[in-house]
Design a protein that fits this description.
By secondary structure, the protein is an alpha/beta fold. The chain is built from 18 helices and 18 strands.
Length: about 475
Amino acid sequence: MPHVLIVDDSPDELGWMSEVAQAEGCTVATADSLRAARVQLVRQQPEVLLTDIQLPDGNGLQLVRELEAPAQTEVVAITGHASVDSVVEALRLGATDYLVKPIDIERLRAILKRQPEAAELRHEIGELRGELRKAGRFGLLLGASPAMQSLYDKLARVAPTSATVLLIGESGTGKELAARTLHDLSRRKRCPFLAVNCGAISPQLIESELFGHEKGSFTGADRQHIGFFERANGGTLLLDEVTEMPLELQVKLLRVLETGSFARVGTTQLISTDVRMVAATNRLPEKAVAEGRFREDLYHRLNVFPVVLPPLRDRGTDIELLAQHFLDELNRQEGTSKSFSPQAIARLYEHSWSGNVRELRNHVQRAFILSDDIVETADAGDAPMDTGPGDVISIRIGTPLDEVERRVTMATLERCGQVKRKTAEVLGISLKTLYNRLEVYSMKDQTREDGNPPLPRHRPPPPRSRDAGGGTHKH
């Protein structure tokens, strides 16, 4: 039974919030000041701390520093100022969620309902951090290096909470597997886990994909569509490549995160949603903010608990561990018993693995196909692209950035012999993002030719690698 501590200087607020918490099966303690709250913390640490920010004797979030085990308490800030600045400040000071006065009863109930059977969840995580970690595993992730052990510690601490997580790592480091592991170790594990790649959906469709649309809301909307936020209600939503999201949509996403509600395209009727947000990016978000491509307020709203995934080149013997894991998988699938030669293992350590675990997995599969009983690897990666005078393009100062992007993309595609996967690697973007760009360029060209904007099309993204972090996706 979760224990809740409610801190507010209003007797009326304390009264009705206590009734709601007790109705949800929680034990409740109340305090009307920081001093009284400290007394309650000494008596029993709560699973949920609901505290007003402005108290007679100070800031209620000062209590975060006095929690004996902060990772085991969900801190919800209560504020009377629904500004972005106040929310960002609350998150910086340690809150994992917030409520704006007048408090929405349904949102308060949603926060209380998502409290786990604490003992059961902690036992499961403790088991993973113990026995499974000895084998180099944690959830869907595989690796025994110090860098991965540090990652496991962070994931284990944040998984049971409702804190928003920002996963930062190069392409192929396993960000989606880390997100799935967070979901599987959370109180939301019996609810949906959905992932949406913000760089793989055309700008014309991404709002509809996230929030849904009503029939007839735009040309081609011949039926009602339920978006990701609605389908993921109660569960976890991963926004992959979040820094690729159009700026105008970032404003709407921020509003959803602030209010917990949204409207489908084509209607003003608000729909409440209870979704844990996990965002991921293969770029430095601070750089995206500095370049004006990512809103600073949204960055702070998502950056509650940042987690950096280490590149494969920093994971030491994990290279051999992962390669053997992938080879074992292939042997099981094909009914073979192939093995690496010592020379093949040595060559694996000589490569930089710019594509990280995904590149390693693809390489092992190629080597497996080309070998007999002993897997040899003559070259761990594709040969580098030759460069020369023809690899330079001239761009006039003042050229719009979208045109610069287009010209560089198309020139690189031509230089790579129209091989899209190689083009994406050279540009440092995902293959899905490249497909999305090419579709947008094609639509613009069609508009120039006939003067009429084409209907939005949603090109199915290319097949996604099943494994980017050493595990296997669950469906």
